[in-house]
Specification:
- The complex is a heterodimer of chains A (about 250) and B (about 280).
- With about 250 residues, chain A is mainly alpha-helical.
- Chain A is built from 10 helices and 2 strands; from the N terminus they run ααββαααααααα.
- Chain A has a two-stranded antiparallel ribbon.
- In chain A, helix 2 runs antiparallel to helix 3, helix 3 runs antiparallel to helix 5 and helix 6 runs antiparallel to helix 9.
- In chain B, the strands form 3 sheets. Chain B has a 6-stranded mixed β-sheet with strand order 6-7-8-3-9-10, with helices on both faces. Chain B has a 4-stranded antiparallel β-sheet with strand order 2-1-4-5.
- Chain B is α/β, with parallel strands linked by helices.
- Chain B is globular and about 65 Å long.
- In chain B, helix 3 crosses helix 4 and helix 4 packs across helix 5.
- In chain B, a hairpin with a 4-residue loop joins strand 1 and strand 2.
- Helix content of chain B is about 35%, strand content about 30%.
- Classes of the chains: A mainly alpha (about 250), B alpha/beta (about 280).
- At the A-B interface, helix 1 and helix 4 of A face helix 2 and helix 3 of B.
């Protein structure tokens, strides 16, 4: 894999990201929603609720990390790509450069992953402060990386097919928001009615939430891992295809 | 050498179908400054977008230095530089960062020195660490030109490169464009400015409604339609123009006119365009 292909794209995004980080508001905005959930559900509801034999906060923190990594990987990539393609036209310089569509995809996805991971780290730090027994396992870290990869790839698809910046918000409202609430972030899904549960099992975030809470890789975890990999690769290759077929 | 054969592009939306390029064939020799002249909607930018791989043609072929745009787009991308009509600089990055990213995308060797040379050439070296968003329109156009020249392309596409610039900056841009020609590059330029086309272009292609109406040197085009123009402004202020092959013909007509303002001048490319297409640029 040639570094001259994906690296400048990744570097460009990181240069933008660094400037945004220097603005205080960025870090606050990346943290505010998950922290509100943590305070409202974790501290409010969590004192009296037990889930799977443990306290609610221990259940909630991995879910918030999954949700936050999804939101940040997806939203950053889809929104930036849409703006760069339609309004700022900076995406043209990638298309006119002698690099493959897959290089553009890799650079954008890695940048989306970096942003998703950054937001996740903030939540993990807050999680440690709120729940000192919370710990990171290898499965947790691997799931987090796959989740960022998968949703950054999905962000590329949304960024490439949306016809205006408003459309990206619509996609987010129809796909990302329902996933955030119904995929096991805030409550276990196994007690939901069978019909709803079968729909929810189609959501990729559901499998992230299953896998990220596993302490060891059992059959259910392996199945979720496989589904996440399939979703991730499908999104990645479909996104690469959209870039390859780019036509103004 | 650029060889375009039977190029066609149609845009279809819910309301209508627009033929942007209609069966265009053209040869542009290496080292030439070739101008595409035409009014808005003539198809100039669509041609540039097809040749620079942003837009796929419906039919037709384009060979650039022996590579087919439909088969070897990456080989073509290695050989072209583009100054687009719409500014696509990264406004939240500095001038240096813009060129750094672009140079890395094009795998430019000795990048730091080449960035310095490019920024110096367009007079922006002292602003290398300024964010592009703080640049004036003229500075941004100059930076676009520096960026396009950074990988030392053999073919340079300039889509309205001096649009909106004041005359002094426009002439600075022309100097850089002339220098690129001296270095042996092929330059394809679209412009609204007659003066610009006359000052820079070895050959002109006149476009109207997606069709290439005429291709020749500026002098030959002017000779073809007539080298002298009599501008007649009548008592009501209307301008009528009459084109003549010879100076004598123009003088003869002018001497027979009374009660109006008469000017005899040499024809320019705008006269050529009006004569050939019946439109104004």
């Amino acid at each position: 894999m040639s570094k001259s292909g994906w690296y400048p794209i990744f570097l460009r995004e990181m240069l933008h990201f660094r400037r945004k980080l220097l603005r205080l508001g960025y870090i606050f905005s990346a943290m505010v929603i998950p922290i509100i959930y943590l305070l409202a559900f974790g501290f409010g509801l969590g004192r009296d609720v037990k889930i799977e034999g443990g306290d609610y906060l221990s259940f909630l923190i991995p879910g918030l990390v999954a949700m936050s990594s999804m939101n940040n990987s997806y939203t950053w990539v889809s929104s930036n790509l849409n703006l760069n393609r339609i309004y700022f036209k900076t995406f043209q310089i990638y298309i006119q450069a002698p690099i493959k569509a897959s290089s553009i995809m890799i650079g954008e996805v890695l940048a989306g992953m970096a942003k998703g991971l950054f937001a996740s780290i903030l939540i993990i730090v807050v999680g440690y402060l709120a729940e000192p027994t919370f710990h990171l396992s290898a499965i947790f870290v691997a799931t987090l990386l796959i989740n960022c990869f998968m949703f950054a790839s999905l962000g590329i698809i949304a960024g490439m097919i949306t016809k205006s910046h408003e459309d990206t918000a619509t996609y987010s409202n129809f796909f990302i928001m329902p996933m955030a609430f119904f995929s096991g972030t805030f409550f276990p899904i196994d007690k939901l009615p069978v019909f709803i549960k079968s729909v929810i099992y189609l959501f990729p975030l559901t499998h992230t939430n299953i896998l990220i809470r596993k302490t060891e890789l059992d059959y259910e975890g392996l199945l979720s891992l496989l589904i996440l990999i399939i979703y991730g690769l499908a999104f990645f290759f479909y996104g690469s295809g959209l870039i390859k077929r780019y036509n103004e | 050498m650029i060889e375009i054969e039977g190029l066609k592009k149609t845009y279809i939306n819910a309301q209508n179908k627009t033929v942007a390029i209609d069966n265009l064939s053209l040869k542009i020799e290496r080292g030439m400054v070739f101008g595409l002249l035409g009014p808005n909607g003539a198809g100039k930018t669509t041609i540039i977008k097809i040749l620079t791989t942003l837009t796929k043609p419906d039919t037709g072929s384009c060979l650039m230095e022996g590579f087919d745009i439909n088969i070897n787009p990456i080989e073509i991308k290695k050989r072209i530089g583009v100054v687009p009509q719409e500014n696509n600089l990264d406004r939240e990055l500095t001038a240096w960062e813009n060129l750094l990213i672009y140079g890395m995308l094009h795998d430019v060797e000795g990048l730091d020195k080449k960035i310095e040379a490019s920024l110096t050439m367009v007079g922006l070296w002292d602003r290398k660490n300024s964010l592009v968003t703080h640049f004036s329109g003229g500075m941004q156009r100059r930076l676009l030109l520096a960026r396009a020249l950074l990988p030392q392309p053999s073919i340079l596409f300039l889509d309205e490169p001096t649009i909106g610039l004041d005359p002094q900056i426009r002439r600075q841009m022309w100097d850089v464009i002339r220098k690129t020609k001296i270095q042996g590059r092929t330059v394809i330029i679209t412009t609204h400015y007659i003066e610009e086309a006359e000052a820079l272009c070895d050959k002109i292609g006149v476009l109207s409604k997606g069709k290439l109406i005429a291709v020749d040197t500026p002098d030959n085009l002017k000779t073809m339609v007539g080298s002298y123009v009599v501008d007649v402004i009548d008592e009501e202020g209307h301008l009528n123009q009459h084109i003549f092959k010879s100076r004598e013909g123009a003088h003869d007509m002018a001497s027979r006119l009374n009660n109006c303002s008469v000017t005899i001048r040499k024809s320019n490319l705008e006269d050529v365009f009006i004569k050939i297409t019946g439109e104004r640029i």
